[in-house]
Design a protein that fits this description.
two-stranded antiparallel sheet; EC 1.2.4.1; binds thiamine diphosphate; binds magnesium ion; Rossmann fold
């Protein structure tokens, strides 16, 4: 694995803080109704992305995930201003403002969405890996989904075929304890989701996903396995989301104390503690990083605010269009 150095820790700290503050800003502008529709935030789960990016080869590896998808494309190199603009529904957004929160996408940077159908991305991720195996690109796909999605039948069909064909994919369940408001304990006979891999003899196991080092190590082993042609791995990334399922979640299913317990092992705080302990930076330098993050978020907000909405005709460029289709004329 690439060494985890002082630079790694400093980068992790600043980037995780940026993702956190970017999402906090989204929550704020959502309440002001500048961002509409659904909004699912990633606060608390940032170590998953930080650890994964460390282990990936960003020149070719790919990522696909569910609807909690604003910060992953940023991590993979998409301009955060364009992600914020997409959420505002602006023409400068990653999908010209037509996709919105759940549908960030960038083929150029290897980020394949952004999927609102729970578990829909599991077979799609395997399909991407099939393409890479077929075309011998050497790329690996990281396919993320929630604990709720892990109970979909499509997971089992996909696991079976991915193992049969030894596809270069890492299946990652982000177990944050709840599927909307339903706890893992209430949905299955056992809570060790990683054990679903055993039935397919797929290498699998649990990972402390509040810690980017643990994620990077597990991910590195899984990616290397996939890259050398030995097939998929199933990782249960044990994490926690501080905010509700979406902005409309009243969170009656858990206590504030439970959230506070997890905040004690917050990934950003854990990284900050290592930085201070090892003398990688002083408190003042850390404050400076915080200020820089604030500035970066403000730039994204300004860009999104000032961008124009897409021209109304744009929406007809992305729907099926056939001259003799028997509908009323749909060109404006
Ligand atoms: C096929 C399908 N069924 C139901 C829904 C409604 N739904 C959206 S998210 C969700 C829960 C998913 O749980 P999990 O994957 O753990 O996600 P989390 O709440 O942690 O984001 C459900 C049932 C959906 N979007 N798609
Ligand atoms: Mg969940």
């Amino acid at each position: 694995m690439k060494k985890i150095t002082k630079e790694t820790y400093l980068n992790w700290y600043e980037e995780m803080l940026f993702w956190r503050k970017f999402e906090d800003k989204l929550a704020q502008v959502y309440i002001q109704q500048k961002v509409r529709g659904f909004l699912h935030l990633y606060n608390g789960q940032e170590a998953i992305l930080a650890g994964s990016l460390h282990a990936m080869d960003l020149s070719k590896d790919k990522m696909i995930t569910a609807y909690r998808n604003h910060v992953q494309p940023i991590g993979m190199g998409v301009d955060p201003k364009r992600v914020m603009a997409e959420l505002y529904g602006k023409g400068t957004g990653t999908s010209q403002g037509l996709g919105g929160s759940m549908h960030i996408f960038s083929k150029e940077k290897g980020f394949y969405g952004g999927h609102g159908i729970v578990g829909g991305q599991i077979p799609l991720g395997a399909g991407m890996a099939f393409g890479d195996k077929y075309n011998k690109t050497g790329a690996v796909t990281l396919c993320y989904f929630g604990d709720g999605a892990a109970r979909q039948g499509s997971l089992h069909e996909t696991f079976n075929m991915a193992m049969l064909w030894k596809l270069p994919v890492v299946f990652c369940v982000e177990n944050n304890g709840y599927a909307m408001g339903t706890s893992v304990a209430r949905t299955a006979n056992h809570e060790d989701i990683w054990k679903l891999g055993l039935g397919y003899e797929m290498p699998c196991g649990p990972v402390d996903a509040m810690n980017p080092v643990a994620v990077a190590e597990a991910m590195d082993e899984a990616i290397e396995r996939a890259r050398r042609g030995d097939g998929p791995t199933f990782l249960e990334l044990k994490t926690y989301r501080y905010r509700g399922h979406s902005m409309s979640d009243a969170q009656h299913y858990r206590t504030k104390d439970e959230v506070a317990e997890y905040q004690k092992i917050d990934p950003i705080t854990q990284v900050k503690e290592v930085i201070l302990e090892k003398g990688y930076a002083t408190e003042e330098e850390i404050d400076e990083m915080g200020k820089n993050v604030k500035k970066r978020v403000a730039e994204c907000e300004k860009f999104a605010e000032e961008s124009p909405f897409p021209d109304v005709n744009v929406m007809y460029d992305v729907v099926y269009d056939q001259e003799d289709y028997p509908f009323i004329p749909h060109r404006l």
